Amino acid sequence: MKTNKRAILNLHIAVMMFGLSGVIGQFVEIPSVMVAFGRVACSSVLLLLMIRMKREPLRLKEKKDYVLIIVTGMILAVHWTTFFQSIQVSSVAIGTITFSTFPLFLTFLEPVVFHEKLYKQSVIGAMLLMIGVFITIPEFSIGNQTTVGIIWGMICSLTYAFLTLANRYFSDKYDGKLICFYEQGTAAIVLIPALFLLNVHWRRQDIVGVAFIGFVCTAFAYTLYVDAQKKVKAQTAGLISGMETVYGILYALIFLGEIPTIREVIGGMVILGVALFCSIQKNN
Predict the structure, then answer these.
(1) Largest Cα–Cα distance of the chain, in whole Å?
(2) Residues with Cβ < 8 Å from 269, sequence gap 6 or more?
(3) Neighbours of 167 (CB within 10 A)
């Protein structure tokens, strides 16, 4: 495949937007579940408009796909809620670093779901990822906010592994925008009860922040990413995707003054290194 410089630039822009969502989430003071709801609600509305403007079909091909994509949407609701919860109780660095451990779960889930062989190097990679997590943990106590953030981040990572497996199945049958619309639309519906269960005062800053995360960091960035991904090698896309954590930490340093600790830097380097290696191996 011939290198497409514009596509590579668009991939970086999209990943930079993905990484920005965690930092924007720190400027809002509403609970993480409300940030997650606003994100999926805004993005699903924009995706629906985009699909209708292009007059693309909304129907799925098989009835069982509706059930699976609804379950996937429910998992997505948990994913985004735990992601923002991890960041809110700890830091952007912790939230994004622990999110990057999803290859750990994929190592053991993917062979089971798709009946594939479990390779020794994948198990070694999973062990190294766990070592990276243990390095990052300051102390094994739920009284430590960083540790709590890591726990939320690991739950977020596990749910993303399930989402990755589901999207692997859907991507062979449907356009990326349609998959994203159904998943995020379902997640929005699942999170609606939070509007009535939580007494939340929405400031203008909260509304603008959540809307920016939903429209720009999710719907627009995802569409840009999917379109650009079709024009570059899968390995290149995987490597650029791994930069999301780096961008997130840099944003946090610039806009929030969050300086990663030595443990976070070392643990993060281990986790990111293994995650990027897994991405290269997977796409070779």
Answers:
(1) 54
(2) 132
(3) 17
* 3-class DSSP string for 114-156: CCCCCCHHHHHHHHHHHHHHHHHCCCCCCCCHHHHHHHHHHHH
Cβ-Cβ contacts under 8 Å for 71 (sequence gap 6 or more)? 166
pLDDT computed for residue 107 by the predictor: 76
Q: Which amino acid is at 109?
A: L
> How many structural domains are present in the chain?
1
Q: Report phi then psi at 198, rounded to 5.
A: -110, 135
Which domain covers residue 71, as residue numbers? 5-283
153: burial class by Cβ within 10 Å (0-12, 13-18, 19+)? buried
- Distance, in Å, from the CA atom of 92 to the CA atom of 185, rounded to the nearest integer, reads 26
Q: How far apart are CA 192 and CA 186, in angstroms?
A: 10
Q: What sign has the CA pseudo-torsion 160, 166, 171, 177? A: negative
| Structure token pair of residue 248 | 């997130």
Reported as a single tens digit per residue, the pLDDT across 12-63 is 888 889 889 888 988 888 999 999 999 999 989 988 998 998 888 889 988 9
Tokens 């996937």 locate to 72
Cα separation, 106 vs 80, whole angstroms: 18
Residue 244: which residues within 8 A CB-CB, separation 6 or more? 15, 18, 19, 96
Q: Is the dihedral of CA 76, 81, 87, 89 positive or negative?
A: negative
Q: What's the pLDDT at 1?
A: 45
Residue 244: pLDDT over 70: yes
Given a contact cutoff of 8 angstroms between Cβ atoms, the answer to whether 15 and 241 are in contact is yes
User: How far is residue 223's CA from residue 209's CA, in Å, rounded to a whole number?
Assistant: 20
For 5, counting Cβ atoms within 10 Å of its Cβ (0-12 exposed, 13-18 middle, 19+ buried), the class is exposed
d(Cα 185, Cα 66) in Å, to the nearest integer? 12
